[in-house]
Amino acid sequence: MAGNADEFAGYVHALGRMRLRYRRSLLLYRTVTFGRGPGAVAMPSMEEIVSRPQFTVRRVTPELEHDFTVLLTAALLETGATPVARPVSAERVAVALARDDVHAYLASTEGQPVGYAVLIRSPLSFMSEASCLSIDQIFVVPEARRSGAARALLSVAATYADRLGADQIACSVPAQVRDANRFFVRLGFSPDVVRRVTTTSALRRKLTTGEEPHPALDRLLQRRRSLRAQATRAAELIRH
Questions:
Q1: Which of 37, 113, 218, 239 has its C-alpha lying 20 to 30 A from 132's C-alpha?
Q2: Is the pTM of this model over 0.85?
């Protein structure tokens, strides 16, 4: 476990260096002159480049797996994961990327990785005859968002889907992340199903103990508690 934590910390450190290099790549140095005539003073200055950066998207090969793992770690940290709960290791990443149905792509600008997408070939449902490409994960570091990185990754996903002959492209988007949902809606993605997750042990406990929720009963009990509280407050007002 300590080894996983050390490896996780190493990826976090690498992510910090990666972000610093990306920030520097967005700075433009120039000379600004203050004043006029003989008393004018020239001083160096820097400003952010306003043009949109160009992104290069490549499939994650063994030599790119480290950069991919760094960004994967960043995505887990953003969702609140801890090293103990969600350890990231180079071995696990290598095994996952070796699957025939998995393709991962890395987006970079000026040689600095800023995002990734993981694509999985799978049918939309067992009854569907149409082939489908699923975007299992897509992530862009905060510093590179709204600059075209996600669109570059999705463009590669569309090209890959065409090559597979996939008629549909699906994407898993966390319901609570509004910006991501708006982004995919603008690109024509519509909601299909709500995917709920539980642990095997929790499901077995609910099934065997009968602890599954009863919405109608819960509403009735809540109504009774509310009426009881109102009656108590009315009685106190009468006594006073």
A1: 113
A2: no
